[in-house]
Amino acid sequence: MAANEQTTEVATAPKKVFVQRDYTHGTECKYETTYPTQLEGVIARETFTDTVNKINELFERAEELGCPTYTEGCLSCMTGYLLYFCIETKYSKEMKQISLFIQRQNDEIYHPRGVHIVEPMLRGLRCIELVVYPAPSKPV
Q1: Which of 28, 119, 137, 138 counts the highest number of beta carbons within 10 A?
Q2: Contact of 62 with 95, CB cutoff 8 Å
Q3: What does DSSP assign to residue 17?
Q4: What is the dihedral of CA 59, 60, 61, 63, to 10 degrees?
Q5: Which residues pair with 92 in a beta bridge?
Q6: Is residue 127 very low, low, confident or very high in pLDDT (cuts 50, 70, 90)?
Q7: Rounded distance, CA 62 to CA 121, Å?
Q8: Nearest Cα to 104, choosing from 39, 42, 54?
Q9: Tens of pLDDT along 37-92?
Q10: How far apart are CA 53 and CA 78, in angstroms?
Q11: pLDDT digits (tens, 9 = 90+) for 5-46
Q12: What is the rounded CA–CA span in Å between residue 33 and residue 52?
């Protein structure tokens, strides 16, 4: 390479795509399954829909009320909430499952295609953020 030749890389910022909460069924934690046009040609429509549906299903499981949830609430109240120092709540266990699912999806499907799903917990459960990284550019 000659001394006067320079290689420059054109750096472009990653695009952020937000999947908003779906409030059509109340305040339950559920996200829209509408395919964002910014993902066209990057992630298949079915893959995106399957991922969001699974996240919605996991949140539904975390928020369902049942005997274990009521028992946990009563026992924590009777112990002055000291119970939470000893056990992990059903909700926090489910949140870990959601984190693991998103991490697996990122590793197996999304990262190889230049996309990263940010956990909804990091965005206050308001949205699912997808960061689309640009393809590496060739030196000019």
Answers
A1: 119
A2: yes
A3: E
A4: 80
A5: none
A6: very high
A7: 13
A8: 54
A9: 999 999 999 999 999 999 999 999 999 999 988 999 999 999 999 988 999 999 99
A10: 37
A11: 555 555 688 899 999 999 998 889 999 999 999 999 999 999
A12: 6
Helices 90-105/45-63 angle, 10° precision? 170
Cα–Cα dist 42/109, whole Å: 11
Ranges assigned E (strand) in the chain:
15-20, 115-118, 127-132
Separation CA 56–CA 72 (nearest Å): 24
Q: For 14-45, b where at least 16 C-beta lie within 10 A, e where not — what string? A: eeebebebbeeeeeebbbbbebbeebeebbee
Q: Does 97 score more than 90 pLDDT?
A: yes
HSE, side-chain direction, 13 A CA sphere, residue 66: 8
- 3-state SS of 89-118 is CHHHHHHHHHHHHHHHHHHHHHHHHCEEEE
Q: Is the pLDDT of residue 137 over 70?
A: no
Q: What is the distance between the alpha carbons of residues 132 and 1, in angstroms, rounded to a whole number?
A: 33
